[in-house]
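[job 4417] fold queue: 2 targets
>>> target A
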Amino acid sequence: MKFEKIIKNISSLVAAVIVFLMVGGMYLSSKGFEITENGEIVLVGRAYAQDGAVVSAPVIPDNFVFPNEHGEGAADAPVTVYEYSSFGCSHCADFHLNTWPMLRDKYVKEGKLRLVFVPFPIDKASMSAAMLGECLPADKYMAFAELMFKKQREWGLSRNPEKVLKQYAVLSGLSSSEADACLHNDDIAREILNNRQNGITQLGIQGTPSFVVSHAGKNELIGGVQSFENMSMIIESRLKN
């Protein structure tokens, strides 16, 4: 009897572990992650939030067409920075809330720099935020992006981030029904994911934030968090050329 009780307890423990793993797997999947054969938890698509590491720049195709819908600064500015960023990435929030305002004051107002924001979601919630942003009027997009970064912890840690995101979208100008329709718009989802995939396969983006600095027909990929001083140095070097 004692042996049978031990076997029964072991069976119960194994069953509990299996249920735990199944529930954990479903949770990770809902957040846009997967478990590899080695047990490693990674983001689907192998793109992730990254720190200051600078990636080696691949050769960007000359005919590569960058998304250009969400920009700030003169269209004919000599330097354009394409910011591939996720609303759910803390490093991206740091850049957009702290570094970008200083770059804007120094270079955008003088017509030297244009920044183009390209949504690069790294999980399900940031994908929802990116989709809602696409449904806003063009002149409200950058303000919405700033709001997403300012409130990142609130919606990112919420049990129902989509509900919180919809509330912010309504405050930004969408009706509740428009927000619902936006979150179920397959065309918008495909466009965002297509830009994301092109960033990975054609630009070599490995994580967020990543920046492509474009000047005089030449493009350079810079990965990871960039300080104001470092970005200024990069921009100044392009302006001198």
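>>> target B
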Amino acid sequence: MILCQCWDDGNVDDIRVCETLRRHGATASFNLNPGLHRDERYEGWKFKGVKPVWKLARGELVHTYRGFLVANHTVTHPHPKQLDDATLAREIRDGKAQLEAIFGYPVLGFAYPFGDHDDRVCAAVRDAGHVYARTCNNTEQVLPCADPMRLASCCHFLAADFWQRFERVRAADGVFYFWGHSYEILDEQGWADFDRQIARLSATPGARWVDLPELFA
């Protein structure tokens, strides 16, 4: 059984997610918008109108994601289908190029902001040199994938039926792939639950964590 996960948007709570993953030997991809990181941390908005969502400072990125992969989430997180061709291409290509300049390795993955995609957007992502692109669709059969530019995950990490989906994928010896945003972990109980979730996944007999580009190698 293969385990994969990814996290969106480059928020300060990613630091604690990374610490948890390292503790349990888990891998992950982090989908970033390089144009939204500034010289200093800043509060972008409030999740559910209550929890402040802070963006990591640009200078924190390399250290925060040490040992993990980053993937492209466009430069500024627009709705891709609403962009004209030139702006769409620039958001995708510049996002990839800026992340490669920051991290020093090829950025092969992509996640559609808001899950927003169509044939035109998929083609632009493919043409920019990505090997996969994650949608917000769910499936219990991640592979085989008819179109890597329309990769679906199994579920969100807070899905009510997370473990039921996991057990079905495990029974089929498939790929269990989930995603989320670190700001969705609201309190210490949530962090404790997340720690137990990753620990249980990592302790699953016969399961191994895999970085997403490896699925398409």
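[job 4417] complete. Note on B: The CA atoms of residues 25 and 92 lie 31 Å apart.
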